[in-house]
Design goal:
Chain lengths: ~425, ~290
């Protein structure tokens, strides 16, 4: 071997080492790269703000325990202004530019339904903190291979309806001896299946449906609606509202509509609702995730305390669902040992986790509501709460919440009406 | 009974619409300004009033007074920060001033809405009612606050009418709306008259916002719809005509109430828009419009 050949050989080895180091260094750095989770929600909306706060808390807690497979989690937050177009743009940016490995998103069904085809196309594990339309899970059920990346981190509308009927039987029929109900719902994607299911299950629970009013979510004057409902003389109004809440409640109170309101009132789940309605919320009953002081699982109270410490207030129920949704994604990635979407989805399907609101699991491929949260006393039921003297008081399930109901003076139960 | 209910509800809501639109049309009639930040000013007054009442215990009347005060301040800010710079700009040709003012107030309205969204969230709030309780008028249960709102709206509109027709400054305002150049030639300072109009406008918009918040609730997201509603009423009544706006407010208010009661609450906004389209086809200057 000549000296020149030796030099050439040494140079080649050196070059090889440098090249190797060059390749190895970024690879090693990449190993420690944080795993990004995208959050798409409306910051100005109280339910959306709680989604963002919940995700932040979950990431802080997970990172404090060492992260996921040695990686820290990092949140990338996008404000969708509750607009489907903004949400889709944010979703594309999250996946294609910011390279997130999972998305937790919006409480609005119309917006989540717009994201669903993109989750399928971009193969991105995606979970909603509260969108409840049954079309979400129907698409997963009907075309599983395409839509399997989509999950519903709260109960789908027909199951919410079942919870309304279960609680109505206990609260309104058994305790207050009511016989009739009027349904009052905003015209939205989530209320179509809700109303259909309630129309079916309320009579079975003992409440004959005597009126059904659907109205535009932009409605501000509810006087004609209450007037029509009152003319039908129901014992209780079962609401299906989330886009509206403050106005119907205040007008119900100011007009002294003598019929109690129960069912679902999304805005009433917010702890600020008493203040925004100037106390008109007194007596309103709604389904929610949980309320202060109720320990649905060993985690509920500690996470609620964390919320209060971090944000100064108790969150809307989406704060809890979002907290749990981030954990569902993180635990699935941990078990999968990867962020590969198909592996993560397979692990999400195996979720068996104690969450803040109950025991978390998802319905399977063969179930009607594929990838929706499981409902039941051993899983998640949500609770029904009533606003009483400025406090959210849990009144159902009765085994966990035996508190009495309390209505304002202008509301008359059938027994009070009979006594007059 | 249903007819009476429609009559009462329609009257109250129309009075509120009227109050909201009167300032808007006065502003155009006298100053030539179509203020597309109108809804934003109503909402900022409502939210400020609610905030001091709820967080600082100002009570319903204190909250309402502060809300109206904030409406006046917002009105002055609109005048000095948005309108005056456009009117004084040498870069903007006089013929293009109106379109710049439209654009400027539109953008200012969006800024107000986004700012209020950020500060208060977009969930609606309601002011405490000035009066609580209900009265029965021939079996129809009517909140006392609703009656008070209708009375207040008409009292303020009556006072405005007295101010315009019976006082010296009112006559100057009237003259400015008819022939501003002649008024200038007579030695009156137009900018002083405009300032008075902006003050009156601030009081009217602020009060309308506060009353709206105590009757139907208000949120930052309502700003656009409130501007659109005032705009519809003013176009229907005739740009710049105060009586026209009041008539139009009652046409829109009753058309909406009748639809909500007799057809479906969901279709509430439709008839007003149909009437507007018909009026624009048949009488583009509006019911009592003069230009």
């Amino acid at each position: 071997m000549t000296i020149g050949a030796t030099w050439r050989g040494a140079a080649a080895i050196l070059f090889g080492l440098v090249a190797l180091a060059g390749v190895a260094r970024p690879a090693a750095a990449e190993d420690k790269t944080p795993i990004k989770i995208g959050i798409i929600a409306e910051e100005s909306a109280l339910l959306g703000k709680s989604i963002i706060d919940g995700a932040r808390l979950a990431v802080a807690d997970i990172n404090a325990k060492g992260g996921v497979n040695g990686h820290q989690l990092e949140l990338v937050v996008y404000d969708d202004h509750s607009s489907a177009a903004d949400a889709v743009r944010a979703y594309q940016r999250a996946v294609q530019e910011d390279h997130v490995s999972g998305v937790v998103s919006t409480f609005i069904s119309e917006v989540y339904l717009a994201l669903e085809p993109w989750a399928a196309r971009l193969k991105m594990p995606t979970i909603t903190a509260a969108a409840a339309s049954n079309l979400i899970t129907k698409q997963v059920h009907d075309d599983y291979d395409k839509f399997k990346y989509v999950f519903e981190g709260w109960l789908p509308a027909p199951i919410i309806a079942q919870a309304v009927c279960d609680s109505s039987r206990d609260l309104f029929v058994d305790m207050l001896h009511m016989k009739t109900a009027a349904m009052m719902s905003e015209d939205a994607d989530w209320t179509t299946p809700l109303d259909a299911a309630q129309a079916d299950c309320l009579p079975k629970a003992g409440l004959q449906v005597v009126d059904h009013e659907r109205f535009n979510p932009d409605t501000t004057d509810f006087t004609p609606i209450f007037s029509k409902i009152e003319a039908a003389q129901p014992d209780v109004i079962i609401t299906g509202i989330a886009h509206v809440g403050v106005q119907p409640t205040v007008q119900w109170h100011d007009q002294h509509v003598p019929i109690p309101m129960g069912g679902n009132s999304g805005q009433a789940t917010n702890p600020e609702f008493w203040k925004t309605t100037n106390g008109a919320a007194g007596g309103v009953i709604t389904q929610t995730g949980t309320v202060p002081g109720v320990a649905l699982t060993p985690m509920t109270l500690s996470v609620a305390d964390e919320f209060v410490k971090a944000t100064g207030k108790f969150p809307a129920f989406t704060g809890f669902t979002s907290y749990d949704d981030v954990r569902v994604l993180a635990e699935a990635m941990q078990r999968a040992g990867s962020t590969d979407p198909d592996k993560v989805v397979a692990e999400m399907e195996k979720t068996d986790m104690v969450g803040t609101l109950g025991h978390y699991g998802f319905y399977g491929r063969g179930d009607t509501y594929t990838h929706a949260m499981r409902y039941g006393p051993k899983d998640v039921t949500g609770v029904f709460m009533q606003w009483q003297d400025g406090n959210q008081v849990c009144i159902w399930p009765r085994d966990k919440c035996p508190n009495p109901m309390k209505f304002p003076d202008f509301v008359k139960t059938p027994e009070q009406r009979a006594a007059n | 009974m249903l007819a009476l209910q429609i009559l009462i509800d329609g009257f109250a809501i129309s009075a509120l619409y009227g109050l909201g639109a009167v300032g808007f049309t006065l502003m155009f009639g006298v100053c030539g300004v179509l203020n597309l930040a109108h809804g934003g000013i109503m909402v900022i007054a409502a939210l400020a009033g609610w905030w001091v009442a709820a967080d600082y215990g100002a009570g319903p009347y204190g909250g309402a007074a502060i809300g109206v005060g904030v409406g006046v301040v917002a009105s002055f800010v609109t005048y000095y920060a948005v309108i005056r710079p456009i009117q004084r700009s040498r870069a903007i040709p006089a013929v293009e001033q109106e379109i710049f003012i439209l654009t400027g107030t539109l953008l200012w309205g969006i800024m107000l809405q986004v700012g209020l969204d950020y500060l208060f969230s977009n969930n609606p709030v309601t002011m405490q009612p000035l009066l609580t309780g209900v009265v029965r008028i021939a079996e129809v249960r009517v909140p006392q606050n609703e009656i008070l709102i209708a009375v207040l709206c008409w009292s303020v509109i009556g006072l405005l009418s007295l101010l315009v027709n019976r006082t010296r400054i009112g006559k100057q305002i009237l003259a400015a709306s008819i022939n501003p150049r002649a008024l200038t030639l007579l030695g009156f300072e137009l900018s002083n008259i405009y300032l008075v109009v902006w003050t009156i406008y601030g009081v009217l918009a602020g009060l309308a916002g506060v009353l709206l918040a105590s009757f139907l609730g208000a949120s930052a997201d309502n700003a656009g719809a409130l501007t659109a509603s005032a705009f519809t009423i003013v176009i229907l009544g005739g740009l710049g005509s105060v009586p026209g706006s009041l008539i139009a407010a009652y046409i829109v208010g009753y058309a909406e109430t009748l639809t909500a009661y007799l057809i479906a609450p969901t279709l509430r906004p439709i008839p007003a828009l149909i009437i507007l389209v018909i009026v624009i086809y048949l009488r583009p200057q509006g019911l009592l419009g003069r230009r």
